[in-house]
Design goal:
The chain is an alpha/beta fold. The chain has 15 helices and nine strands.
Length: 345
Amino acid sequence: MCRESPFLRARSQVLKKLKGKTGSKIVVFVLRELNLLRRLVPVEKDKARSMALHFYAFMKNEVIQGNPRLDSSEQQRLRSHYPLISKLSHYPPEIAATIYSSRRSHAIKAILDTELPYVFDAGCGYGSESFLFAGLGAKVLAVDMSAEQIRIARKRQYYYEEHFEKPLDITFTVADLDEYKPDTNNVSLTWLASVLAAVRNQNKFLETTCEATRPKGQVMITDMNLFNPLFLFKEWSRRQQTKKSNLEFARKSDFWSMIRRRGRTGARYLTGNNARSFDDVQFFSSRSLSDLLDDTGFVPKFVDFSGFVPPQLWKMGLDHLENVFSRLPFLRQFGYFYLVAAIKQ
């Protein structure tokens, strides 16, 4: 006779207790009992996620306590770039750490599993992930169009070399991703974090990236998810407000074309009434991004999601729901963030 698994026994106990309960009592009851399921179902320790959490803790200390290599204005720029870290009253510290590590752990694993890893950090910003990847032993090509961010990243590099106790093989380059072409065909991993949506010609960029990628090399893209109702509403509201001040956008805006990615190749930047531009970025769902990767030379490999639990529930001690929802086949696709990985055959 087959032994019943701990998960099935726990589920049976929950179902028995549900008898006779209705309405809001069921919701409260289920949330409480999910704690039981979490205790009974063993969760495998993830080495890559632990490494991401360790790096995040060091970076958090740099952002909050300060980097001695940066002056006060540079430090303020860095803090502004990481609101989840710096605004502790708005966001529980654990939520930022969990989301950060869950998305970076896939890249860490890919680097550790690769011989002579070479990472293209596209849209590197202030260079944080470049330091993480180089600290793991990868050669990193870090590109961003902001000369100011690249300048600060180069100053931060000394701080991280002291932390890792070794030189970091990073080449920082100022360039527009719409025009840049890596001078290599040996990239093992391309990393894009909240970047692809802002590229004007996404098809061309990914085709160029594919040409620069070695066989069996990967691309990993993470950003906000159009399937998430909260993010979808925020983006719709942002566009509705902009219509009042940007006549060009009011004429050309088509929210549903952006959702379906119809008649568009990427982001548009439209000048407003007061010469202020509006970023008409092209966001994705995991499905629409997978289709684009398939069209540009990559083969989609897997999709992961995170950001299921809003800050209010984290403060209520329901952070374990993040792990629960990430494992549910249907609900997981509505996470606030996605990560899509694809491989070059």
